[in-house]
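Assemble and predict.
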Amino acid sequence: MISYLIYVLCFALFLVGVYGILTKRDLIKIILATGIMGYSANLFLILFAYKKGALYPILSKGEEVKAMVDPLPQALVLTSIVIELGITAMLVALAIKLYERYKTFDITKIRRLSG
Amino acid sequence: MILPFFIIIPLLAAFLITLVSGKKDNWAIILSILAELSVLVLAVFCYVYQIDDIFVYNMSGWKIPFTICLVQDALSCFMIMVVSIIALTSLIYSVTYIRHLVSSWRYYALFMLLVTGMNGVILTGDLFNLFVFMEIALFSAYALVSYGRKAEEFEAAFKYAIMGSISSSLILIGIAITYSYTSSLTMATIAESLKNKPAGVTFWLGSLFLAGFGLKSAMVPFHAWLPDAHSSAPAPISSMLSGVLIKSLGIYTIIRIFYNVFGAPELFKTLFLVFGILSIVIASFLAIGQWDIKRLLAYSSISQIGFILVGLGVGNFYGILGAIFHLLSHAIFKSLLFYNTGAIEMAIGTRDMRDMGDLRKALPVTSFTSMVGSLAIMGMPPFNGFFSKFFIIMGLLQAKMYIVALLVVLGSILTIAYFVKFQRYGFRGKNVIEKEMVAEPIGSGMKFSMAFLALLCLVTSLMLIPGLRETTLDPVINVILDKTGYIKSVLGR
């Protein structure tokens, strides 16, 4: 039961992100919500790799092979963190430009496009 | 082995452009056109000579479960060729168009990154690598949508970026669950180990991937971002986005994952049919109401994606043939029509059909090629659009889905309706526009791109002649229809 709980919590984090994107009106809060969603995806990857009582996967001299954590998802998470950094920077830059043009961060007032 | 060069050449070009270019964009233009031309030559070479072969390139010499592999089969040859044709014409078109907008080398560097991302998505055989290349393509797409630096463009780019990051998170979670379940990221190995697993797993994984890639391909429940993003971008970028980006990131990945990896489960085929019909009908009705020509074309993109999905959902030979051929023909005529809107916007400075009029004297090339493109998308006989829709309907009749076939016919009649509106108000309206009223002349590069694609609208119909079809399109269809062929050929057993 406990072992499932952590996945449920992680999914709840994802839903927090979705909720933020859907309901918040401030551009910055929307950007933060996309960040939260991305973190929950990364957390999923890390949780799948986790093993209770396991070691880091580096084999040094004089050490015998024991249970190890799967290193591949950790490498994937590093990549996806870098990608998310880029996307967040892009979103913030767009938000700054939007503020210059519309003088507001409120998404309901930024609607020249419609339909 | 020319497989990695499809990714290396545009990536290197993007890198060199940032190094070499000063304030002027001459070097950027030369470099990017050279790079894209060489990619096109390689793609045509692969498509003509190596379509029946399959090549697997293992990065840094590791064997398959441990490596990131690139796979070249008939489907990816075909997609690379489509992307390269549209990208090259779009670059030639951009030379005049972007100088009229905001001239900078940054445009060409971002454009080459977009091409890199798309080629990578098409060629890769690794699920996470697909995600990385997809993000490269999307990242440059966000920047290029906002390239004109107007308020509406930033708004559209922001909307697009938010939608893109939602779908990317969904896809990443899908990849994570796939990895935890099959302990592999190579698509062929995943396919092999999923064969012995219960069908419920495929259902959950498939629904995550369908939501993620459905957002990228803008099928109807997930379509809200497309009309804004595609109509706000500069015209050559609109043509890239509508012509190939939604196909390489959306439709191609859907084909790869649902047909080659999951082995085409019946449930998802039905879902493709439902979403396809919804896309065709709803987007057509929305398109009829538009007065902005670029918005009309963007909605029409959604509806044409619906045709491709219906063809995929039928799943028999003619349905897949129609879907694949519609993918090619839609890339050609939709890019052509977006080039036309760019030319009109440059010449008379408006996109609203109510301000346009009789353009036949002022812009002869544009109005003639737009006539060709409209006839092709309506599905008039000598052009490629007719044959693709014809084969989709034939596949539906063969599978005895008469009601769906009727709805598809209704959808193509609606297509005729909004393109008759486009032609009637846009090019044959009441107020005659003379040559003197044209603000800026259309460059010869723009004319060349439009004329070339209009020619292709006719020429690609030749691919369906019985002798030629066996060598050009049938290998692609075999890749999709053969459920275990992909696993066998990639893993070599």
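Chain A has three helices and no strands.
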